[in-house]
Design a protein that fits this description.
The chain has about 230 residues and is mostly helical. It has eight helices and four strands, in the order ααααβββααβαα.
């Protein structure tokens, strides 16, 4: 199957799962059933990222593993100390936990970081082409830091959209239902570190499905935030 067909198939599956999930959660009596199948959706989206990734260099898998491990470790530190993100606990939706943290959270970290960076890279390339900018219009170092900063900010924006919905769906719960500001500060710092690694690792970074997935998931959680 050629790359365009792979991208189209992945986009169709992502739209199907998220549209059905939204309808099922908001408009049917089977809300709990759809919520309980969140791990399936998350896992399939990660598989689709791998499926649509061109030229799967070893660095791609290494980066995915680094995101998974980093995300999982900081979450363990977070729930046991409160020093990262704030005081919160995970519900039962994501399934098996180790030290109070669902294993699937590592996948979630990878998806958010990977998709955010792909979006910012493609947006930057589009703007350069649109404005007729050449590669020398901005110093290379400044450009790299700008892309890193923007990707980290985009990851934080996604987390901001997700947080209130996650509590309503039982993904996790904050103490007194209050999301502390330094949750977003820590998200930015960790996302910036992983975005730096994203730029450091050498692998294909033109996965169009990652852009579609970021938009689909952002709209999905934004719609749930407005409707729940």
């Amino acid at each position: 199957m050629n790359q365009n067909r792979k991208q189209s198939l992945a986009l169709f599956i992502a739209l199907l799962f998220h549209i059905c999930g939204f309808i099922g959660i908001v408009f049917t009596a089977y809300k709990d059933w759809f919520i309980q199948h969140t791990p399936l959706t998350l896992s399939i989206m990660a598989i689709l990222i791998g499926y649509t990734q061109e030229k799967k260099q070893p660095a791609f898998y290494v980066f995915a593993a680094v995101c998974f491990i980093t995300g999982f470790v900081v979450e363990i530190i977070g729930i046991h100390t409160g020093y990262l993100f704030g005081n919160y606990t995970y519900g039962q939706v994501f399934g098996f936990k180790f030290s109070g943290v669902p294993l699937l959270i590592g996948i979630n970290w990878f998806l958010i970081i990977f998709c955010s960076n792909i979006v910012i890279r493609q947006l930057n390339n589009w703007l350069e082409n649109r404005l007729g900018m050449d590669n020398n219009s901005m110093p290379a170092t400044l450009k790299k830091w700008s892309i890193l900063f923007d990707a980290a900010i985009l990851a934080v924006v996604f987390d901001y959209i997700l947080e209130p919905v996650a509590m309503k769906l039982g993904f996790w719960n904050w103490q007194n239902s209050q999301i502390p500001f330094y949750n977003y500060v820590c998200w930015f710092l960790i996302a910036a570190l992983l975005s730096w690694l994203f730029n450091l690792f050498y692998f294909n970074k033109n996965n169009q499905f990652a852009v579609h997935l970021f938009i689909i998931q952002s709209l999905f959680f934004l719609a749930l935030r407005l409707c729940l």
